[in-house]
User: Which sequence fits this backbone?
C-alpha cells in the first residue's frame, strides 16, 4: 500500500486558528493525537491516507494551534472537536485516537454516539484503575520517557529523546538545544497538564458512561506499553458493547510510530 504525504490547513475556530493535517482520498477518518502531538511525518497517517481521507487536527496548545487558554478541561476539548468537525463538514465519521487522543475520542462517543461511525482506541488513557495506575509522565527526563514510550530504543524519536537526556543531565548544555526541538515538547507537556493533570490522565465519570458508545469499537494495545497497562484496554472492552482487543507485539505506547504499517492495516480492515 503506497503512502501519501500530509498537507497542512489552518482552520478558524471559536478558540483561534488550529492546524489540521490532511491527506488522501476516500472515506474520511479522523485521527486524534497523543500527548506527544504527533502529526506531520507520522508514517501511520501516511499509510492510512493510501485508502482514506485522513483528517488529523492538532489540538490547541500543540504544534501551531491556538486556543489552549480557552480550554479548561476534557469537556471543553470535546466541544472543540465537535465544532471543528462541523466546520470541516464531517458528520458521522470513524475516529482513531492514540492515548490522550483515544480518551478524547471515547469522550466524544459517549456524549454524541451518532457522530462516531467506528472507533479505534490505541493504548487509550482516560480510566483510573487502582491496581494498574497510569505511569506518571510529568517531570521525568527524556530518557525515562523514551523507555516508557518505546520498545525499540533505536527508533529515531527514542534516539532523539536519549540525545536530549544527555543535555538534560548537564544544565550548562541545555541552552545549546535547538528551540525547534525543545519548544514543541514543552508546549505539548503544558497543554497535556492543563487537560489531564488533576485528575491525572482520566475522567472519574468516563467508565460508567462507556456503555453509551454505540459504534463498533476496536481497542489496540501495544504489548510492550509501559505507560498504560493492558488492564485499561480490558476495562474499555468490558464496558463498551461488543468491543474487542487486538494486541500488537513489539510495540510500546507509541504504537503509531513503532508499527505504522501494521496499525494502518488493522484500521483499514476494521473500517471495511
Assistant:
Amino acid at each position: 500500500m503506497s503512502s501519501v504525504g500530509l498537507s497542512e490547513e489552518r482552520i478558524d475556530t471559536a478558540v483561534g486558528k488550529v492546524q489540521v493535517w490532511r491527506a488522501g482520498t476516500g472515506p474520511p477518518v479522523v485521527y486524534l493525537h497523543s500527548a506527544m502531538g504527533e502529526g506531520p511525518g507520522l508514517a501511520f497517517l501516511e499509510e492510512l491516507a493510501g485508502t482514506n481521507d485522513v483528517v488529523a487536527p492538532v489540538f490547541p496548545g500543540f504544534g501551531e494551534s491556538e486556543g489552549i487558554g480557552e480550554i479548561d478541561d476534557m469537556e471543553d476539548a470535546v466541544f472543540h472537536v465537535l465544532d471543528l468537525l462541523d466546520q470541516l463538514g464531517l458528520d458521522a465519521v470513524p475516529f482513531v485516537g492514540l492515548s490522550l487522543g483515544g480518551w478524547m475520542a471515547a469522550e466524544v462517543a459517549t456524549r454524541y454516539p451518532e457522530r462516531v461511525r467506528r472507533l479505534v482506541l490505541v493504548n487509550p488513557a482516560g480510566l483510573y484503575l487502582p491496581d494498574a495506575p497510569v505511569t506518571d509522565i510529568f517531570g521525568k527526563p527524556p530518557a525515562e520517557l523514551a523507555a516508557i514510550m518505546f520498545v525499540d530504543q533505536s527508533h529515531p524519536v527514542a534516539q532523539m529523546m536519549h540525545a536530549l537526556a544527555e543535555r538534560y543531565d548537564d544544565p550548562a548544555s541545555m541552552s545549546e538545544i535547538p528551540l525547534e526541538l525543545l519548544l514543541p515538547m514543552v508546549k505539548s507537556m503544558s497543554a497535556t497538564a492543563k487537560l489531564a493533570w488533576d485528575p491525572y490522565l482520566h475522567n472519574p465519570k468516563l467508565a460508567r458512561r462507556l456503555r453509551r458508545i454505540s459504534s463498533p469499537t476496536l481497542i489496540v494495545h501495544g504489548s510492550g506499553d509501559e505507560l498504560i497497562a493492558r488492564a485499561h484496554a480490558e476495562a474499555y472492552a468490558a464496558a463498551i458493547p461488543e468491543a474487542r482487543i487486538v494486541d500488537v507485539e513489539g510495540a510500546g505506547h507509541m504504537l503509531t510510530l513503532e508499527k505504522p504499517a501494521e496499525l494502518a492495516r488493522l484500521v483499514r480492515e476494521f473500517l471495511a
Q: What stands out?
A: The longest helix spans residues 179-196. The beta strands are 7-13, 16-23, 28-32, 53-57, 93-98, 116-122, 217-222, 244-248.
